[in-house]
Write a structure and sequence with these properties.
The protein has one domain (32-433): TolB, C-terminal domain (Neuraminidase, 6 Propeller). 3% of the residues lie in helices and 35% in strands. It has two helices and 31 strands. The strands form eight sheets. The chain has a five-stranded antiparallel β-sheet, with no helix packed on it. The two termini are 12 Å apart. It binds 2-acetamido-2-deoxy-beta-D-glucopyranose (NAG) (8 copies). One 2-acetamido-2-deoxy-beta-D-glucopyranose binds next to loops.
Length: 435
């Protein structure tokens, strides 16, 4: 049974108009397959470089169109249960900005929008009724240099603590040994206070509180609304070798990491190091020499010999004892980029962008992870069955070159169980029903 959601946001969500002939272009290039119980539809093509998406309090969708700027979309398609009619009836570029490329967040009152470039997080004053975005200003600086290796900076305002904003930065390079010094401000996520940075722009290097580090490139952040727990998804390294043997086809695992509560600064998670660059988690132990005798099972941490020497700090045992373990693992090189929870906490949805470093290619889908009443994933950390595929490319043999590559997720505030996702490679917005 579904109903329109009361969002708790300051302004009222406008009802959806009936879809009409005025729907904007949604010409399907790639066939998609939905698992039983789900349906999916392309709702907008020609959304160049589609990355971050968030709903504003009036029910318009704001998107980062990388290389273009902030785009505001008006949706139609009734408020009922039929995905067939969902479409976009209007689009406005509300802030032309060639440099913003991924990160996007909106204050719960809808009056401030945040977006990130490689170097800077910017804020705009935003009017949810007209869509006007004005008074662009930098609020966090020193996030990196142009053309560095991992160029996105994810922004996340946790619903439990809306006066805070999480800002993530990845490593520069596949192996970035400099990330073992937190002062370098890479491969981590920091917490900033929105009130404080509004008053005075903050340097990412010298301010903010580290929530987690040793995170190679944890692009996706989410919060379980029933527990307040913070979770992230991390992209593991490419071209991994172990004892000189190429193990990259099945290793390392992509990770789901647990970060606890934002107000529990004494928890083992708060400020923890998750292992990068010395330690990763195993996905296919059978490819790793001597895995059994070293207790390297699925999900177990093991030493990365391309960054550590295997003795003392940087041994397998040190990785397992001294670095915070992943709570769940996924198949290698799927490049998870976002995680968003159902409001009842029973599942999280994860986008798998896919990468180039695996043959045959894998990822390019949206998946579900089931959570129990204790707020933890139902599957154990050693499981290789935690990912439940929801929507994927019908034929992924043309990936990553030509296919749908899911990036960011946003729950529809109009209809429960409806979630939108972007695909940057194909320049599209899709919707999933039944989520
Ligand atoms: C609609 O989008 C497709 C896919 O991007 C494009 O090939 C086509 O030219 C577009 N059609 C119109 C009328 O803009
Ligand atoms: C959904 O709407 C389409 C178009 O109006 C219609 O053809 C289809 O039968 C509807 N499906 C359901 C399950 O109501
Ligand atoms: C980075 O690129 C932006 C936009 O092109 C430019 O304004 C800025 O000066 C560049 N910064 C550096 C350090 O090259
Ligand atoms: C954020 O900063 C403001 C102003 O200093 C302060 O009142 C508020 O308590 C801070 N919020 C948190 C969660 O620390
Ligand atoms: C964190 O906040 C929640 C309410 O949001 C509260 O129930 C809990 O006791 C707090 N925990 C700590 C450690 O302060
Ligand atoms: C990282 O450190 C390891 C161990 O000192 C070294 O072998 C490796 O060359 C370094 N990698 C890079 C990219 O600097
Ligand atoms: C291995 O690396 C650790 C940590 O950097 C260091 O303490 C140790 O001396 C190194 N051992 C050898 C044999 O190089
Ligand atoms: C998938 O796409 C490839 C490349 O276009 C094609 O050769 C193959 O026949 C397709 N497979 C199916 C099942 O359609």
């Amino acid at each position: 049974m579904r109903s329109n959601i009361v969002t708790g946001l300051a302004a009222a969500v406008l009802p959806l108009a009936n879809a009409t002939a005025a729907c904007l272009n949604a010409t399907q290039k790639y066939a998609m397959t939905a698992a039983a119980g789900y349906s999916t539809k392309l709702v907008l093509s020609d959304l160049v470089g589609a990355r971050g998406i968030v709903f504003d309090p009036t029910g318009h969708l704001i998107a980062v169109s990388s290389g273009v700027g902030l785009v505001r979309l008006t949706l139609a398609g009734g408020s009922s249960t039929n995905i067939t009619d969902v479409c976009v009836t209007d689009r406005q570029t509300i802030a032309a900005d060639h440099n913003i490329n991924h990160g996007l967040a909106i204050a719960p009152d809808g009056k401030t929008v945040y977006a990130s470039s490689i170097q800077t997080v910017f804020a705009w004053d935003y009017d949810p009724t007209t869509g006007a975005a004005t008074n662009k200003r930098p609020i966090i600086t020193d996030l990196g240099i142009n053309g560095s290796y991992h160029n996105t900076r994810t922004l996340f305002i946790p619903p439990s603590h809306p006066d805070l904003i999480l800002v993530q930065r990845g490593s520069v390079g596949n192996i970035d040994n400099g990330t073992t010094d937190p002062a370098n401000g890479r491969a981590m996520v920091k917490i900033f206070n929105r009130t404080e940075i509004a008053a005075k722009p903050a340097s990412y290097l010298s301010t903010g509180t580290i929530l987690g580090w040793g995170l190679r490139n944890s692009v996706g952040w989410g919060q379980d609304p029933t527990t307040g727990y913070i979770w992230s998804v991390e992209n593991g390294m490419d071209n991994m070798e172990r004892d000189g043997v190429d193990v990259h086809q099945g290793n390392p695992a992509e990770e789901l990491n647990f970060h606890g509560l934002l107000n529990d600064t004494k928890s083992p998670e708060f400020g923890a190091n998750y292992g990068y660059p010395e330690c990763f988690s195993a996905w296919e132990p059978s490819l790793i020499p001597h895995a059994a005798e070293k207790n390297i099972v699925v999900g177990a941490a093991f030493m990365n010999e391309m960054s550590a020497n295997g003795t003392g700090e940087g041994s397998d045992t040190w990785c397992q004892k001294q670095r915070h373990a992943a709570r769940l693992v996924f198949s290698s090189h799927m490049a998870p980029l976002d995680i968003k929870f159902r409001k009842d906490g029973s599942a999280a949805f994860v986008t798998m962008h896919g990468s180039w470093d695996k043959q045959p290619a894998e990822g390019y889908r949206v998946s579900r992870i089931d959570f129990g009443k204790d707020g933890m994933p139902k599957e154990p950390a050693s499981s290789n069955k935690a990912e439940i595929i929801v929507v994927s490319n019908t034929n992924s043999t043309t990936c990553p070159g030509s296919c749908v590559r899911p990036v960011h997720l946003a729950w529809d505030p109009h209809v429960e169980g409806r979630i939108f996702f972007t695909s940057d490679a194909s320049g599209e917005l899709h919707v999933i029903d039944g989520a």
